[in-house]
Write a structure and sequence with these properties.
The chain has 263 residues and is α/β, with parallel strands linked by helices. It is 41% helix and 22% strand. The protein contains ten helices and seven strands. β4, α4 and β5 form a beta-alpha-beta unit. α1 packs across α2 and α5 packs across α10. Bound molecules: S-adenosylmethionine.
Length: 263
């Protein structure tokens, strides 16, 4: 574990849902509209977390099957319970060591690839499990340009009171999450002619406490950092953010880059 991943806390599904799962769920709908996947397909959901994308695929894409995997046993158990559909099965697994027998029409990863240290290996593995002509697709937040404003405003405020926080800012950790960066990644992974597009939702909070509370639950990089702060520093951060955002309602843009390519 390095000084960045120390705070990437992927456990307690209920807490992750409040922080990010609910937004990823909304984004997943937009992503599937854009993707226009075939109906009756066999899917792989890589880094399924609490099941946001799996659930959206079941609702919108009439899949034949979905194999969903994640390294977090806690998230896998949560997703299995929450989704509860015979077409979906859930296993603990890693993007860089996909099951040897997997063979799917569509492989997708939602908000995952930036957290995988060897992204090229993950994309190569993904191509291996695709049937000929199969579709590989993923989305990541537009961190470098501050497109996920909820996260961006948090890290910018944190850096003002804690010099160590600047390096943890996901805008700096994941500079490849731009159209040019993603095109380069696809090239390195041998993916021809990827289609790269932005998709956007709004994150809305009734008041400041609704914005702040999920950061205190510890699930995800920013909440992982927030909960490890000494109480005094956490309160200083809360006050700084409250001053910046006001008492609400708070409406912030959340923009992602979506990528699709054929094998
Ligand atoms: C931001 S969450 C996204 C979860 C879910 N896909 C969603 O959209 O809500 C990032 C997920 O990536 C998973 N992850 C981290 N490293 C991974 C790896 N090497 N392979 C697969 N998944 C990984 C984490 O366990 C976590 O569930």
């Amino acid at each position: 574990m390095d000084r960045f991943t120390e705070f990437d806390a992927w456990s307690v599904g209920h807490n992750y849902e409040q922080y990010m799962g609910r937004w990823s769920r909304q984004l997943a709908g937009r992503f599937l509209d854009w993707l226009e996947p075939p109906r009756g397909a066999d899917w792989l959901d890589i880094g399924c977390g609490t099941g946001a994308l799996t659930g959206a695929i079941l609702e919108r894409a009439a899949p034949r099957s979905i194999l969903a995997l994640d390294p977090s046993a806690d998230f896998v158990a949560y997703a299995r319970r929450a989704v509860g559909d015979d077409r979906a099965s859930f296993i603990v697994g890693d993007a860089t060591a996909l099951p040897a027998t997997a063979s799917v029409d569509v492989a997708a990863a939602a908000l995952v690839l930036n957290f995988v240290p060897d992204r090229v290996a993950a994309l190569r593995q993904t191509q291996r499990v695709l049937k000929p002509g199969g579709m590989l697709a993923f989305y990541v937040w537009d961190y470098p340009r501050g497109g996920m404003e909820m996260i961006d405003v948090f890290w910018k405020a944190a850096a003002e009171i804690d010099p160590h926080a600047a390096a943890l800012d996901e805008a700096l950790r994941f500079p490849f999450c731009t159209d040019a960066g993603l095109a380069a990644l696809c090239r390195d992974a041998g993916l021809a002619a990827p289609d790269i597009e932005t998709i956007e939702i709004d994150t809305e909070f009734a008041d400041f406490e609704a914005f702040w509370h999920p950061f205190t639950l510890g699930a995800g990089p920013a909440p992982g950092y927030c909960t490890k702060l000494p109480a005094e520093a956490r309160e200083a951060l809360r006050q700084r953010l409250a001053k910046r955002l006001g008492n609400g309602p708070i409406r912030l843009a959340a923009r992602a880059w979506a990528v699709k390519a054929r094998r």
